[in-house]
Amino acid sequence: MSRYVKKIFIFAFPPLGAFILKALRLTLRMEVVNRPPEDTQFIFSFWHGRILMMPFTALSRPVSVMISRHGDGELIARIVKYLGISSSRGSTTRGGVSALKELIKLAREGFCPAFTPDGPRGPRYVVQPGVIHAAKATGLPIYPVTYSARKKKL
């Protein structure tokens, strides 16, 4: 794919991607188990393989999620922006320290930081230290979040 086509894709796809996710959400039945109280601030933590429906678990809280600076991360950051979620850009391999500082600052402003602690490069289901550093710096509890999906019964 040429650089020009990539730029058009990065610009044009996010609203469509957000629409597709919202449409997909309508086909699923969601049941929240062990929901934290609405006025509780915490750190969202979910495995990298469970990203798809996570924008719908925020439960009306302001959230900022750490997203890598890679090209795929740019696409994800733009899509979640259309879903009302801000992002801090960085990962364990590039820009993680500055993104972590930004998330800590936002947490002090009332946002719930969100992490995929195993990251895109893994190792899968192994927590990297960023989420722990955020919890220590903010004093917020880490709240593991996951979901499973099945067809919605009509």
Give the strand line-up of the largest sheet.
3-2-4-1-5
The percent of residues in helical segments reads 25-40%
Q: How many domains, as an integer?
A: 1
The end-to-end span amounts to 41 Å
CATH architecture: 3-Layer(aba) Sandwich
Count the beta strands: 5
The main sheet comes to: 5 strands, parallel
- Number of helical runs? 4
Radius of gyration using CA atoms only: 16 Å
What characteristic shape results from the CA principal axes? Answer: globular
Write down the overall mean pLDDT.
86
Enter the CATH topology name. Answer: Cobalt-precorrin-4 Transmethylase, domain 1
Structural class: alpha/beta
Classified by CATH, the class is Alpha Beta
Oligomerization category of the chains in this entry: single chain
H-E string: HEEHEHEHE
Indicate the low-confidence ranges by residue numbers. Answer: none
Beta-strand proportion: 5-15%
What can you see in these coordinates?
This protein has one domain: Cobalt-precorrin-4 Transmethylase, domain 1 (3-Layer(aba) Sandwich), CATH 3.40.1010. It contains 4 helices and 5 strands; from the N terminus they run H-E-E-H-E-H-E-H-E. A 5-stranded parallel sheet has the order 3-2-4-1-5. The longest helix is centred in the N-terminal third of the chain and has 24 residues. The radius of gyration is 16 Å and the shape is globular. 25% of the residues are buried.
